[in-house]
Amino acid sequence: MAYKRVLLKLSGEALMGESRGSSIIDPAVVEAIAGEIREVVRLGVSLGVVIGGGNIFRGVEASSKGMDRTSADYMGMLATVINSLALQSAFEGAGIETRVQTAIAMREIAEPFIQKRAMRHLDKGRVVIFAAGTGNPYFTTDTAAVLRAMEIKADVIMKATKVDGVYDKDPVKHPDAVMYQKISYNDVLAKNLKVMDATAISLCRDNGLPVLVFNLQKSGNIVRGVSGSRVGTLVGD
Ligand code: UDP
Q: How many domains in the chain?
């Protein structure tokens, strides 16, 4: 395996699949993700997961319509907990031992985030889902993913998207967009490419954490990514 320990970042919308608008969490999509994760675990790769909340609630959007930003962001963080429990349920259904740890304590449904405890779970081959983002408003789950990746000493952060990797322009709008195989953190920041927000990318750069941006909608891509097969775009130095 190319990577021994991986932090997988999924956006909340990844759980909606194609049925956008009909259901915020599509069980068939979550099951498909669980199937790939089972394969990753079977290969002996240690895995942490951070899931966003954008399928349910985004703080910035609500605050632009007048809601208090801090309250809205806490609502967004709670949305990530709902998604995390959906993932945990599907993972356990697929026979994967899974723990959810939250950045905001809610002990009845999940463990609080404790780095050393997370490490122990990972060392035992359990998947750990990190919920409630960083626990702080004004951050994103991309930044939470980078933070947790560093805390668990992940070799790479795998950022799932709907396109094959990082392009010079939006590939959905521009058919002539060119995908990068590799790109530097500074180029991502200078060209303002939509990989992750600037806080998350600069945190990766300052700590030398590589980011593999890949297409989640192509089945088998998570396994390809962890095993080092050519997939997606690698953001590094
Ligand atoms: N959020 C936050 N602090 C964090 C992580 C998330 O306040 O550390 C809130 C923020 O309002 C954000 C929402 O949670 O809009 C959902 O997260 P995000 O937008 O990153 O989810 P994704 O786009 O990945 O689904």
A: 1
The predicted-structure confidence for 82-113, as pLDDT tens digits, reads as follows 999 999 999 999 999 999 999 999 999 999 99
pLDDT at 19: 57
CATH number (domain holding residue 55): 3.40.1160.10
- Written as six digits, the tokens of 182 are 């590799």
ipTM, interface predicted TM-score of the complex: 0.98
Cβ-proximal residues to 113 (8 Å cutoff; 6+ apart), any chain? 101, 102, 103, 130, 135
Parent domain of 146: 5-236
Distance 153 CA to ligand 1 centre (A): 22
Mean of the per-residue pLDDT values for the chain? Answer: 96
* Nearest CA, atom 6, ligand 1: 140
Band the pLDDT of 140: cuts 50, 70, 90: very high
Q: In percent, how much of the chain has pLDDT > 70?
A: 98
pTM over the 0.95 mark:
yes
CA 131 to CA 141: how far, in whole Å?
9
Question: Residue 48 in 3-state DSSP?
Answer: strand
Which protein residues touch ligand 1 with a CB less than 6 Å away? 11-13, 52-54, 58-60, 72-73, 76-77, 79-80, 133-134, 136-137, 139-142, 144
| Burial profile 199-221: b = 16 or more Cβ within 10 angstroms, e = fewer | ebbbbbbeeebbbbbbbbbeeeb
